[in-house]
């Protein structure tokens, strides 16, 4: 059975129902600390288990890589999954978290979905065919001035206690923009760039499962996807995504 965005949506929306059932009963949801500043809940595990069982049963030719369960043997053509991106927000009862599912074939991201069930927003994209939010086509913002722009970031780097902790970079960019946001889910943040709600997003020290689907959605909506020097491509350790019109203005501040 060949995969389609419609089939993927059915599966990801069902995963969202599982996540919402836990979200509505947080007082009874077990939260564990994976490492300092990094949590996993019973919901993360339940959603990933559902996605792994369902996707590998429907598409046995594809392998699976989930944040919580790790990689299956086949990593040539694979599903890349973050079952809940923004787990800390989820555990605190906040709405800004998402389920991220990408399909990578021969090292090309071909299909991606990011579903934010508490926001009731479903983003998806297929390589070369465009990006959609709740069934409507989306494109990046028309903002041409960084000074008038709104940007987003995250601080995954604080988990690694790195010397470059993004704080000086954030300060430089904050002094040269109008709006700054740290919503707490890189996967959804990337979709906000795709949807024109953010004009740029950057973060260091992420993993491919945080950004694979969101980066494809952003790219298909017209975004640039580079590292902090402007080199084209998806670099999870240094992700910079912009509406393409302010890339030259933000690079000197990175
Ligand atoms: C986190 C979110 C957050 C980012 C963290 C990520 P998780 O994912 O994407 O926005 O700043 O670094 O780890 O851990 O909730 O799946
Ligand atoms: Ca994540
Ligand atoms: Ca996660």
Question: How would you summarize the topology of this molecule?
Answer:
Layout lengths: L4 H19 L7 E5 L2 E4 H17 L4 E4 L3 E2 L6 E8 L1 H5 L6 E8 L2 E9 L4 E6 L3 E4 L2 E2 L12 E4 L13 H8 L4 E3 L4 H9 L5 E5 L3 H13 L3 E3 L11 E5 L4 H4 L4
Parallel strand pairs: 3-5, 11-12, 11-13
Antiparallel strand pairs: 1-2, 3-4, 5-6, 6-7, 7-8, 8-9, 9-10, 13-15, 14-15
Mean pLDDT: 96
CA-based shape: globular
CATH architecture of the largest domain: 2-Layer Sandwich
Q: Any idea of the CATH class of the largest domain?
A: Alpha Beta
Bound molecules: D-MYO-inositol-1-phosphate, calcium ion
Helix content: 25-40%
Q: What is the CA–CA distance across the termini?
A: 44 Å
Largest sheet data = 8 strands, mixed
Gyration radius over CA: 17 Å
Number of strands: 15
**CATH topology label of the largest domain:** Fructose-1,6-Bisphosphatase, Chain A, domain 1
Counting helices, strands and paired strands, the structural category is alpha+beta
Write the CATH homologous superfamily of the largest domain: Fructose-1,6-Bisphosphatase, subunit A, domain 1
Structure in words:
This protein is an alpha+beta fold. The chain folds into 2 domains: about 5-135, Fructose-1,6-Bisphosphatase, Chain A, domain 1 (2-Layer Sandwich), CATH 3.30.540; about 145-254, D-Maltodextrin-Binding Protein, domain 2, CATH 3.40.190.80. Helices cover about 30% and strands about 30% of the residues. β9 and β10 (about 135) form a beta hairpin. α5 (about 185-195) runs parallel beside α6. The relative contact order is 0.14. The model has no long low-confidence stretch (mean pLDDT about 95).
């Amino acid at each position: 059975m060949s995969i389609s965005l419609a089939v993927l949506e059915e599966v990801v929306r069902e995963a969202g129902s599982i996540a919402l059932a836990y979200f509505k009963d947080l007082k009874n949801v077990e939260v564990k600390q994976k490492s300092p500043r990094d949590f996993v809940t019973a919901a993360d595990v339940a959603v990933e288990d559902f996605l792994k069982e369902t996707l590998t049963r429907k598409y046995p030719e594809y392998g699976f890589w989930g944040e919580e369960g790790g990689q299956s043997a086949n990593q040539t053509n694979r599903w890349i999954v973050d079952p809940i991106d923004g787990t800390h927000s989820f555990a605190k009862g906040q709405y800004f978290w998402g389920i991220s599912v990408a399909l990578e074939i021969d090292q090309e991201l071909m299909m991606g979905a990011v579903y934010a069930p508490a926001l009731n927003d479903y983003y998806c994209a297929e390589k070369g065919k465009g990006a959609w939010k709740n069934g409507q086509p989306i494109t990046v913002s028309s903002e041409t001035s960084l000074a008038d722009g709104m940007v987003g970031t995250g601080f995954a780097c604080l988990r690694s206690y790195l010397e470059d902790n993004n704080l000086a970079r954030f300060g430089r960019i904050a002094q040269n923009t109008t709006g700054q946001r740290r919503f707490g889910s890189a996967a959804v943040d990337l979709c906000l760039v795709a949807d024109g709600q953010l004009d740029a997003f950057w973060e260091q020290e992420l993993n491919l499962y945080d950004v694979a689907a969101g980066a494809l959605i952003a790219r298909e909506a017209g975004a640039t996807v580079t590292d902090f020097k402007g080199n084209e491509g998806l670099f999870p350790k240094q992700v910079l995504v912009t509406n393409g019109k302010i890339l030259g203005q933000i690079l000197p501040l990175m």
